[in-house]
Amino acid sequence: DAKTTQPPSMDCAEGRAANLPCNHSTISGNEYVYWYRQIHSQGPQYIIHGLKNNETNEMASLIITEDRKSSTLILPHATLRDTAVYYCIVRVAGSSSNTGKLIFGQGTTLQVKP
Amino acid sequence: NAGVTQTPKFQVLKTGQSMTLQCAQDMNHEYMSWYRQDPGMGLRLIHYSVGAGITDQGEVPNGYNVSRSTTEDFPLRLLSAAPSQTSVYFCASSYSTSLSTTYEQYFGPGTRLTVT
User: Fold this and answer.
1) Given this model, what pLDDT does residue A20 score?
2) Residue B71: its pLDDT value, please?
3) Are strands B10-13 and B111-115 parallel, antiparallel or unpaired?
């Protein structure tokens, strides 16, 4: 699975959009980009995933560059409850040899401030 | 659905003691796994299972055993606890089929283990 690079920390004002970048320059054509977050002391929570098209759900939007070497997770109106560590993970899905392993890096600690 | 449940929530062990961390899911997920998270670090995969009767090692399997006799349960056993196993343990589950293009994993609330 490709390696990802994220900034260690970011701040965001409450009510503003939070844009979290992720670099995955070695991504392969069959690898998806997943985002999870971990609120303090809780288990990780799935946010969104995508292959090459931009994706949006009730939690966030995922923007993937055309060359797929980087992506941005967007929380459109950040709240204090969005303060968490955000993990960008790249991995293959849908393969019979897929073991389902998620490789968590250090992630980005997002601090939403009032 | 209760989702993924883990027991106990907290545990203190003495070096050399054994114990089993319980994990159960009621979503009929084929895939289950165990991670550990040390302070200030990301999660590391210990063991995983792609279905009942099938288990395999992750990144950090030493000191841990698992079994998967049912789809619902995936217990993690520490045979002889060591201080280095002090950590927070998370269990996760997901659908897992070769036809599935994507699937998210659902995590339990964690078990906080201290080994003295």
Assistant:
1) 98
2) 95
3) parallel
For residue A112, give both structure tokens: 């939403």
Closest partner CB to A43 (pick from B90, B98, B102): B90
Query: How close B62 gets to chain A, by Cα (Å)?
Result: 17
Listed by number, the residues of chain A in 63-82 with a beta carbon closer than 8 Å to a beta carbon of chain B are none
CB B76 within 8 A of CB B21: yes
pLDDT band at A69, cuts 50/70/90? very high
Q: In 3-state terms, what secondary structure has residue B78?
A: strand
Residue pointed to by tokens 């060591």: B82
Q: At B115, which amino acid appears? A: V
Residues of A in contact with B106 (CB under 8 A): 46
Report, as an integer, the average pLDDT of B79-107: 84
Chain B stretch 6-45, residues whose beta carbon is closer than 8 A to a beta carbon of chain A:
31, 33, 35, 41-45
**Tokens standing for residue A102:** 């998620």
Q: Interior CA angle at B108 toward B107 and B110, to 5°?
A: 120
Using 50, 70 and 90 to split pLDDT, how confident is the model at B98? low
Written as six digits, the tokens of A85 are 């560590």
Minimal C-alpha gap between A101 and chain B (Å): 7
CB neighbour list of residue B26: distance below 8 Å, 6 or more residues apart: B1, B2, B3, B72
DSSP A97: T
